[in-house]
Amino acid sequence: MRQGEPRPQGDGMPGIRRRRVLAVAAAGLVAGCTEQASTGSPRPAADPLVATPPAHAVVAAYRLPVEGREEVGDLLRGLTDRAAAAGGAGREVLLGLGAGLFDRAGLAERRPRQLTAMPSFPGDVLDPGRTHGDLLVHVGAGTAPDAARLLATVAGPLAPNWRVEGFRDGAGTSPAGRPTALNPFHFTEGHGNPEAAVVPAEIRVGAGEPAWAAGGTYQVVRVIRLATRMWDHDPVDEQERIIGRRRDGTWLDGSPLAQDPPFDRDPGGAVTPLDAHVRLARGAGERPPMLRRGYSYRAGEEDGLLFMAYQKDLDRGFAGVQRRLAGERLARYVLPVGGGYFFTPPPGTAWHTALFGP
């Protein structure tokens, strides 16, 4: 809690008991994170989102079975205690708070400013059974069984409304040190992310948000079905013109992947079409200010992408990109069917105390 910020008051129930400090220094809400610095911002070196994503992940969304500030706080405390006990090397645990959680806790006035239910963008066909949630638990581990067990341990008795199990094929590192992986369309992802040194400054919120939220980040989750069979029938050079990069990440004019996009030298789209995915996503400005993580998934005969993006400003980040992507050629191969908006709290435990009391 920041100096001068009033301590949250009770919910009218007498004698809210003292809560012990959350034992999550090892795992926090993210395995391997450290406590917040005295400024309220996480130490950049400990930022969990800088680390290479684990090979397997499970994302699960829950509707909370309780209401009231104390009851919601106790539920979250139990979850984070279990995360601490389950954490370890190569494991990751992230918690996302949905807009509905603040309503259930009676803390609507302390909700992060941009946290709402995720809207439907052009081209979306959102399945209510795979969309939104009061709480998101995202776990990662080296194998699929380990990730599934980790989720079961952390979530405890909670039953998810929806869940997606993802994996990263062809995981590697770009020349600039960014984690990369192959998506189901056979393209390398991760080149457009910010460098590790600037990730905290680019994605974590500060002034303008409730004091408890400083150092947290807005998380977007998108469950996207991919028409892989139709895609694979197209020639590779046509696929690359649709994306706006070559499969290995280099630009279509041969420029190296670490170089700024060469779009200003191609105003008419002769080399990189004007409706190419990367070109539209970039727009006329700089790289979109967000950190993206992608996992492939398979559910029966359904191939897809579990896409996640972290940012300090949804409108400048994900939502702004979605508006620019309207009309892209890639749209005929992708179908967003689920996901949601969530807020990942700051690393450490101070946010819980600030919201729910000691």
Question: In a few lines, what is going on in this structure?
Answer:
With 358 residues, the chain is an alpha+beta fold.
Give an overview in words.
Strands 2-3-1-4 form a 4-stranded antiparallel beta sheet. Strands 9-10-8-11 form a 4-stranded antiparallel beta sheet. It has a single domain, classed as Alpha-Beta Plaits (2-Layer Sandwich). The termini are close together. The longest helix has 18 residues, at 69-86. It is α+β, with helices and mostly antiparallel strands and 358 residues long. The protein has helices at 69-86, 99-104, 144-155, 199-203, 228-232, 236-243, 277-282, 318-324, 350-356; strands at residues 56-62, 92-97, 135-141, 162-167, 169-173, 179-182, 188-189, 217-226, 291-299, 302-311, 334-344. It is built from 9 helices and 11 strands.
In the CATH hierarchy, the architecture is 2-Layer Sandwich
The Cα radius of gyration reads: 21 Å
The succession of helices and strands, N to C, reads EHEHEHEEEEHEHHHEEHEH
N→C terminal distance: 11 Å
Structural class: alpha+beta
**Poorly predicted residue ranges:** 1-45
Strand order of the largest sheet: 2-3-1-4
Mean pLDDT: 86
CATH structural fold name? Alpha-Beta Plaits
CATH class: Alpha Beta
How much strand? 15-25%
Number of helices: 9
InterPro entries: Dimeric_a/b-barrel, Dyp_perox_C, Dyp_perox_N, Dyp_peroxidase, TAT_signal
Pfam family, one: Dyp_perox_N
Protein name: Deferrochelatase/peroxidase EfeB
GO molecular function, one term: metal ion binding
